[in-house]
Design a protein that fits this description.
This protein has 216 residues and is α/β, with parallel strands linked by helices. It contains 8 helices and 10 strands. The strands form 2 sheets. The protein has a 6-stranded mixed beta sheet, sandwiched between helices. Helix 4 packs across helix 5. The chain is globular, with a radius of gyration of 16 Å.
Length: 216
């Protein structure tokens, strides 16, 4: 039974909500639950768009970090994160990240893997742990380079600097800035609009990033 993730079906749109307070840290069990949700949604064959959001207006998701975590556990979580990010890119339906608050480390990676990202005015993004040697996955680095270019990606990785919603929007990381009071409503409405598109249009859109990587 899913404990920290809820999945509500609204017609052809599935709404996944992260509910593991206080900071929505993406530890192994949470990554597995998100993966299980996606598998169930695909198996149902009724979903044409997904909204991914947090129950908190302060935090979207963050990296799981605990003192004295065994190296084997860290490697297992890293492998699960990479698998989940790849799965998000490969599912046949668009996924919209609705971001209120902080999307940091693995939480930023989760948002980057989604097809579209909308955020509230007070969202923050970044990899604050890179100065401590905790690096994002190669999947996320590639995605970020595609969005903002090599030089800006290096800046974000090396400096560990957090960027606000306005800057993220200007860089193209965020597709739209929405007042926080309307954020969830707008995200769900956007998903319903996408769900009405012809299947071939949705498939073509999902393949854009993959086709670019093949060409280059």
């Amino acid at each position: 039974m899913l404990k920290t993730i809820t999945c509500n079906q609204e017609g052809s749109v599935a709404v996944l909500t992260l509910r593991f307070s206080p900071v929505n840290a993406l530890h192994c069990s949470v990554l597995s639950e998100i993966e299980d949700c996606l598998i169930q949604i695909e198996a149902g064959q009724r979903t044409r768009a997904v909204v991914l959001l947090s129950s908190s207006d302060k935090v979207f998701a963050t990296t799981y970090a605990q003192v004295n975590t065994p190296c084997s556990e860290e490697l297992r979580c890293l492998g699960q994160l990479q698998q989940l990010l790849q799965h998000i890119k490969e599912v046949p339906f668009p996924i919209i990240a609705v971001i209120a608050g902080a999307a940091l480390g693995a939480g930023f990676e989760l948002a980057l893997a989604c097809d579209l990202r909308i955020s509230g005015e007070y969202a923050k993004f970044g990899f604050p742990d890179t100065p401590n040697g905790i690096l994002p996955t190669s999947i996320s680095v590639t995605t970020l380079m595609e969005e903002v270019g090599v030089a800006k990606t290096k800046e974000l990785l090396w400096g560990g600097r957090l960027i606000g919603a306005k800057e993220a929007h200007g860089l193209g990381i965020v597709n739209a800035l929405i007042p926080d009071s309307l954020l969830v409503e707008e995200g769900i409405a956007m998903a319903h609009s996408l769900a009405c598109l012809p299947t071939e249009v949705l498939v073509a859109g999902k393949q854009l990033g993959e086709n670019k990587r093949r060409v280059t």
